[in-house]
Design goal:
alpha/beta, Aspartate Aminotransferase, domain 2, 2 domains, 17% strand, globular, binds pyridoxal-5'-phosphate
Length: 355
């Protein structure tokens, strides 16, 4: 039987997607050729790329609004640098909510002045700072919608005239939002969309072309846009699997449907964390809790061996917390069924009965 996969990333993908992807590896579109051995310039693959780009914009409600979707390489980590290359002239404003935000700041500092408008670093990122103001002379404001490692998630985003940039790697396509608030969104595929190896970038074209520096071709969003996301050989397999996941999402009713399921999963798990005296949530404010990654610890560390043995024998995978937080992290991405969360909650209740 398949494991209940709570892995933080690379993570669970929908079973029908994996089946279609497996068959495309041996015979794609009835061509008697593998998806990964045909030209990326062939019509069959160009259709995949176009379909993936269109579906991404559609799910975000951003078609015909001046946005372009790109499937690039280098992970979200390269976007930390690309954002600065393409948008930073004098000053970038950043919200520091975790390890990934911290890394994005480090890269941007290579190219200009960075103003950290607020940070929760002093308390190991266990909350989302609020009440900060964004300097009106900043070239852009960068934030991280979901902090994968710490289990916090932004529930609202600032209303600002400053160009708004967001790393949505670990919660893209998980909840309904007004995505037109953002000028640039990026997300590594391997958290909620596909295998590692491609990064979705959705950018409003009008914010580009304003910096004075020369941008190397591979780092220039305008170059990628002008080549329809095929400036160089794209990572064909991750793009294809991402396309299949976006099709799957559409079939089950889109972002608004998955949001309901994601809410149900998060409610189920957090209610147990709150109810069960053997567990403590890591995040201090309940409203900052992530619906994608729930972080928690055991109140009594001596129960660790029994709890670990219990969830492993229940068929659960990937529950260990990140080393910077410790404890446990249950990642409940789009493809994780509610039943898997129920299995985890049952184990937590059972520990309570034993303990
Ligand atoms: C995983 C993750 C990253 C890093 O992604 P890579 O594709 O490994 O570079 C960046 N930001 C967030 C929010 C993440 O969860």
């Amino acid at each position: 039987m398949k494991k209940h996969n709570f892995s933080a990333g690379p993570c669970i993908l929908p079973q029908p997607v994996l089946q279609k992807a497996a068959s495309a590896i041996s015979n794609f579109n009835g061509l008697n050729l593998s998806l990964i051995e045909i030209s990326h310039r062939s019509k069959d693959f160009v259709d995949v790329m176009e379909n993936a780009r269109t579906l991404a914009l559609e799910h975000l409600g951003l078609q015909n609004k001046g946005y372009k979707a790109l499937f690039l390489q280098g992970g979200a980590s390269l976007e930390f640098l690309m954002v600065a290359y393409n948008l930073l002239e004098k000053k970038g404003a950043y919200l520091n909510t975790g390890t990934w935000a911290d890394k994005s700041i480090k890269e941007a500092k290579l190219l200009g002045d960075i103003d950290i408008v607020a940070s929760s670093k002093e308390s190991n990122f266990n909350y989302i700072p609020k009440g900060y103001s964004i300097p009106s002379d900043a070239d852009y404001f960068h934030c991280t919608s979901n902090n994968t490692i710490f289990g916090t998630q932004m529930q609202s985003f600032p209303d600002t005239d400053v160009t708004l940039v967001c790393d949505m790697s670990s919660d893209i396509f998980s909840r309904v939002m007004d995505f037109s608030k953002f000028d640039l969104i990026y997300a590594g595929a391997q958290k909620n969309m596909g295998p590692a190896g491609t990064t979705l970038v959705v950018v409003k074209e009008e914010v580009l072309g304003k910096v004075s520096r020369t941008i190397p071709s591979m780092l220039d969003y305008k170059v990628h846009i002008s080549k329809d996301s095929m400036f160089n050989t794209p990572s064909v397999f991750p793009v294809y699997v991402s396309m299949l996941t976006l099709e799957w999402l559409k079939e089950i009713g889109g972002v608004s449907e998955i949001e309901k399921i994601n809410n149900a999963k998060a409610n189920l798990l957090y209610s147990e964390i709150d109810r069960n005296a053997l567990f403590n949530g890591f995040v201090t404010n309940n409203e900052d809790r992530s619906k994608m990654n729930a972080t928690f610890t055991l109140a009594d560390d001596s129960l660790k061996d029994s709890f670990d043995a219990m969830w492993k024998s229940a068929g659960i995978n990937g529950l260990n917390g990140h080393r910077s937080v410790g404890g446990y992290r249950a990642s409940m991405y789009n493809a994780l069924p509610l039943e898997s969360v129920q299995v985890l909650v049952d184990v937590m209740k059972e520990l309570g009965r034993k303990g």
